[in-house]
Amino acid sequence: MASFPQIRLRRLRRTEALRDMVRETRVHLADLIYPLFAAPGQGVKKEISSLPGNYHWSPDLIAREAESVAELGIPAVLLFGLPEEKDDAGSGAYDSQGIVQNAVREIKKAVPELVVITDVCLCQYMDHGQCGVVVDGNVDNDRTLELIARTARSHAEAGADMVGPSDMMDGRVAAIRSELDATGFHETIIMSYAAKYASAFYGPFREAADSAPHFGDRRSYQLDPANAREALREVELDVGEGADIVMVKPALAYLDIIARVRRRFRLPVAAYNVSGEFAMVKAASQKGWLDEAACAAEVLTSLKRAGADLIITYHAKDMAAWLKSGKVT
Q1: What architecture does CATH give domain 25-325?
Q2: Contacts of 69 by beta carbon, 8 Å cutoff, 6+ apart
Q3: Distance (Å, whole) CA 244 – CA 20
Q4: Which residues are catalytic?
Q5: DSSP 71-86
Q6: Cβ–Cβ contacts within 10 Å for residue 244, how many?
Q7: Which of 38, 101, 27 is nearest to 66 (CA)?
Q8: What is the DSSP string of 80-126?
Q9: pTM given for the model
Q10: pLDDT band at 150 (very low <50, low <70, confident <90, very high)
Q11: Whether 209 contacts 124, CB under 8 Å
């Protein structure tokens, strides 16, 4: 190999046009999924204080927001729901007239081409805030599976294109696939939160979804942040149970996990750029300490570079505007 000065790597960095020509990794709008929060009532558009620029939407208004998302070129939304009432069976999660189910119908009626993904979990619907049925102070894995499967089926019946189980119960993907297939929803996609960590970066989301546990924590079912090999076991099990897409959550602090999953599995890999990651950039930019567009683009590019095919991010609408204006590339 020739040595300096024949090899000058700066040659390809000299101008913006040259840098653009040889850029290895790009974030496209088609990669992005935008989270939406459905809330009870009529005419509700209420900003989420911990997620500036993101809102609680009533079903009658959420379809308009979905239309604006589609007009920007973002192909998909991920729906979360805040029910009017909670109980110890999470019944609002699988109610055919539940908040998410009604929001799905409204969105698909207004924007049929938009891909609608639903979060499948019980935490927002349980009066104790845990992700499953609690028996003697513990989350009962197997009793929870039936309710998770019923929830996924109710979302498919409402018109969801894809369901995303986020509860981290063992066997949930198999239970959902069996329920969907048995009821004629063979084409409904499962995007599994396969490697979901017990992270400190979920704080703003728990305010947004009113989903904080009222006792204990979720470390008995979500992954220990110190473990990587265990994450690969979780992904492998979900793939074997019928997942179509696997997700790593959070994203920024788990780039190594995204890369390992990408190398080992052939399925599409999603990464969730979670609320705390969004809030750090947003808050610092509001203080004037960071350039929000540049930092958000750098974060999302890092997720693509690590191997993510799809990125769930609260910055999706902003990125659409920044990409269109040329503010980021």
Answers
A1: Alpha-Beta Barrel (3.20)
A2: 34, 36, 77, 114, 316, 317
A3: 33
A4: 196, 249
A5: HTT--EEEEEE--S--
A6: 16
A7: 38
A8: EE--S--BTT-GGGS-TTSHHHHHHHHHHHH-TTSEEEEEE-STTTB
A9: 0.95
A10: very high
A11: yes
